[in-house]
Write a structure and sequence with these properties.
about 325 residues; alpha/beta; eleven-stranded mixed sheet
């Protein structure tokens, strides 16, 4: 009996020894939350710009009020304000809002990206109308912004090229900051005119590792029949792309005799890997917070759908994870 006890104790001691070795211990992953801070950058060509920054942190999240929109409703979320960045190697996502949208117009998406391990920088562009701002009061409603665009047609975009300079300024300024623990990976994203903005910024010489756009140029296509970019522009891409569009937008395009949404054209002419991703019952403003666009902003279900597929796309193309971007019946990929 003493011999059996001795053998058992020796075996138990061996187990303890093995489990305490560095090779045998499995590292427990840190819980990643969304950090947030407002940052003002100064650039010789772009002037002073306010940027919203979301980033991975292990700090505790709490309810947060970003700012009040032109609707008199508050943009709210859940973040750890000014918490330190989590240890890691985080890709940078630079996001350009649609005309009037504001840098904090899509906080549900930006927060989700931060929790998934991405640093997101969204600037307040110097648009004539901003329905919400990172800091300071709004300068008009979305309806006033649409009226401004009607009075000042987009044309070839020359009058809006300040957005390109501002996006370049954000990229260079944020990449120079060491506190966000950035990797070398850069993603460009944009909504509506913001899609045009990041495409033109890329065309000006910025080389992203991936790009996603939300309903880029759909209003221009719907109401004027004009495309932001023609087929040869997309055919030169050397990076993965994801094109989101709304189900309501598709029906509007068909009713207007356009046959399809502009996103379909972009997807058709972009090289593989590329994705066309439908937002069920989505309209042009589904990517915005409800407080910014009451009655048109995204629902919880729509944001969950957008975020899941967007993060899968980035995880697959930027982090090389073995994930499926989408299994949706209406989504396409190549």
């Amino acid at each position: 009996m003493k011999v059996q006890i001795c053998i058992f104790l020796c075996f138990y001691a061996l187990l303890i020894s093995c489990s305490s070795s560095d090779d045998a211990v499995e590292e427990i992953p840190q819980e990643i939350n969304a950090g947030y801070q407002k940052l003002q950058i100064t650039h010789p060509d772009a002037g002073n710009l306010w940027v919203g920054i979301w980033y991975p942190t292990t700090g505790m999240e709490a309810a947060y009020m970003y700012n009040t929109a032109a609707t008199d409703l508050d943009i709210t979320g859940l973040v750890a304000e000014n918490a330190p960045t989590a240890v890691g190697d985080w890709p940078l996502v630079v996001f350009s809002h649609g005309f009037s949208g504001g840098g904090i117009g899509s906080v549900e998406i930006c927060e989700a990206l931060a929790r998934a391990g991405y640093v997101v920088a969204a600037v307040d562009h110097s648009d004539a109308v901003l329905a919400v701002r990172v800091k300071g009061p709004s300068t008009g409603t979305i309806e006033e912004a649409l009226q401004y665009l009607s009075d000042n047609p987009f044309g070839d975009g020359t009058d809006y090229e300040y957005r390109i300079v501002e996006t370049e300024a954000v990229v260079s300024s944020i990449q120079a900051k060491t506190e966000f623990n950035l990797s070398s990976k850069l993603v460009l994203g944009g909504h509506s005119m913001g899609g045009w903005t990041v495409m033109k910024t890329m065309d000006a010489g910025l080389n992203p590792d991936a790009m996603f756009v939300f309903s880029m140029g759909e209003l221009n296509w719907l109401f004027t029949g004009n495309r932001y970019f023609e087929a040869p522009f997309f055919q030169e891409f050397e990076f993965p792309t994801a094109y989101f569009y709304g189900g309501v937008e598709y029906l509007q395009a068909v009713d207007a005799g356009r046959d399809n949404v502009y996103a379909a054209f972009c997807y058709e002419h972009s090289p593989s890997p590329s994705y066309g991703l439908l937002v069920a019952e989505g309209n042009h403003f589904t990517y915005n917070s409800l407080a910014l666009a009451p009655g048109s902003g995204g629902t919880t279900a729509q944001f969950n759908s957008i975020n899941t597929r967007l993060i899968n796309f980035l995880d697959k193309q930027i982090k090389n994870k073995e994930v499926v971007v989408s299994t949706g019946m209406d989504d396409i990929s190549k």
